[in-house]
TrEMBL record:
<dbReference type="GO" id="GO:0005886">
    <property type="term" value="C:plasma membrane"/>
</dbReference>
<feature type="domain" description="K+ potassium transporter C-terminal">
    <location>
        <begin position="129"/>
        <end position="208"/>
    </location>
</feature>
<keyword id="KW-0813">Transport</keyword>
<keyword id="KW-0472">Membrane</keyword>
<keyword id="KW-0633">Potassium transport</keyword>
<feature type="domain" description="K+ potassium transporter integral membrane">
    <location>
        <begin position="1"/>
        <end position="115"/>
    </location>
</feature>
<dbReference type="InterPro" id="IPR053951">
    <property type="entry name" value="K_trans_N"/>
</dbReference>
<keyword id="KW-0812">Transmembrane</keyword>
<feature type="transmembrane region" description="Helical">
    <location>
        <begin position="48"/>
        <end position="71"/>
    </location>
</feature>
<dbReference type="InterPro" id="IPR003855">
    <property type="entry name" value="K+_transporter"/>
</dbReference>
<feature type="transmembrane region" description="Helical">
    <location>
        <begin position="20"/>
        <end position="41"/>
    </location>
</feature>
<dbReference type="Pfam" id="PF02705">
    <property type="entry name" value="K_trans"/>
</dbReference>
<protein>
    <recommendedName>
        <fullName>Potassium transporter</fullName>
    </recommendedName>
</protein>
<keyword id="KW-1133">Transmembrane helix</keyword>
<feature type="domain" description="K+ potassium transporter C-terminal">
    <location>
        <begin position="294"/>
        <end position="373"/>
    </location>
</feature>
<keyword id="KW-0406">Ion transport</keyword>
<dbReference type="Pfam" id="PF22776">
    <property type="entry name" value="K_trans_C"/>
</dbReference>
């Protein structure tokens, strides 16, 4: 609105405004025609000759109007061109800074050998609960994890490295929503979860998402798709095999998660399905149960893993978010320092946080700050 008012007040002439809007409109039409030719070939799988004929017919007409608008360049048509370059510079700064931040994450991720060297306790006290560590990496352990355990003496008994990805399809089926795998041996209780959303999928609120996440991890444990000796691959620096697991509504013949208050538990009837439940607490707020199918049989190791997952879910879930401060490293050029330290940092401070950060409950959120020298 302010930009429109500034242009209108600055010109004070409808002819100049018409020249500016005319060049903008015809440029959009010309670019749309060129992109439409790609749709004809790549999406509709038509012949290249048909695409060329389409561009020649419509593009010739639009090119005549485009050339006529360029004649009026100095009479107001320069405004949309100048604004385009300004927005182009902003997008290039954002893309460059985001790319450098991701490269820093990839280059500084923690190796599996370092994790195995800490032992099952990870060298720290494991407290009750589930820790969700948000990361953009789909493999390896993010540097924010090592930064956290270096400065704090305790961590949760169950850790989930959560990566939320948007895929270029309208919808992702519920039965293909989660990709889950172990990180390291089973005794470490470390999981990697990749959640996939289409660009038209609606993200669930934190309560429904937590239920789907825990239920999917439980189904992954019950299915036993990853090999018990998967740690051998971890010594070579690779993650265990990832398994596609659906949401709770897709587990019709698998594990079902039930969360009840104490009063409801006492009045609940018997179930035909076997249950794994958490041990009684002095004053529990809620009780968590996994309803298991009668077959196939669950191994003792899987049952112990499910038991620990139940106890951790009852204790609560903590969202651990990384908050990075991006700075150009020493020795960088003046242009790079200007782009990273001022341009990109200004855009980050004035941009909306990721969707996972907005949906996480504030009472259970912990931000870990870290300086990225890119």
């Amino acid at each position: 609105m302010l930009l429109c008012l500034a242009v209108t007040v600055g010109f004070r002439d409808t002819k100049r405004l018409g020249n500016a809007s005319g060049l903008a409109v015809i440029t959009v039409m010309l670019v749309t025609t060129c992109l439409m030719s790609l749709v004809i070939v790549l999406c509709w799988h038509k012949s290249v000759f048909f695409a060329i004929c389409f561009v020649c017919f419509f593009g010739t007409i639009e090119a005549l109007y485009f050339s006529a608008s360029l004649i009026k360049f100095l009479e107001g048509a320069w405004v949309p061109v100048a604004l385009s370059f300004i927005f182009l510079i902003i997008m290039c700064v954002w893309y460059y800074g985001t790319l450098k931040t991701y490269e820093f994450d990839v280059q500084n991720k923690v190796s599996i050998n370092w994790l195995l060297g800490l032992g099952p306790s990870l060298g720290i006290v494991r407290v009750r609960g589930i820790g969700l560590i948000h990361t953009e990496l789909v493999s390896g352990i993010p540097a924010i994890f090592s930064h956290f355990v270096t400065n704090l003496p305790a961590f949760h008994q169950v850790l989930v490295f959560l990566c939320i990805k948007s895929v270029p399809v309208p919808h992702v089926k519920a039965k293909e929503r989660f990709l889950i795998g172990h990180i390291g041996p089973r005794g470490y209780r470390l999981y990697r979860c990749i959640v996939r959303y289409g660009y038209r999928d609606v993200h669930k609120d934190d309560m429904e998402f937590e239920k789907d996440l825990v239920c999917s991890i439980a189904e992954f444990i019950r299915s036993g798709n990853d090999e018990p000796n998967g740690a051998k691959d971890d010594l070579e620096g690779e993650d265990n095999k990832m398994t596609v697991v659906g949401t709770c509504c897709t587990h019709t013949d698998g594990i079902q998660l039930r969360e009840e208050d104490v009063d409801n538990i006492e009045s609940a009837g018997t179930s035909e399905l076997r249950e794994i439940r958490s041990p009684p607490l002095t004053q529990p707020r809620k009780r968590v149960r996994f309803r298991l199918p009668d077959s196939p049989k669950i191994t003792r190791a899987a049952r112990e893993e499910l038991q620990e997952l139940v106890e951790a879910r009852e204790a609560g879930i903590a969202y651990i978010l990384g908050h990075s401060y991006v700075r150009a490293k020493q020795g960088s050029s003046m242009l790079k320092k200007l782009v990273i330290n001022y341009g990109y940092e200004f855009l980050r401070r004035n941009s909306r946080a990721p969707a996972c950060s907005l949906s996480a409950p504030h009472a259970s959120t912990l931000q870990v700050g870290m300086v990225y020298n890119v």
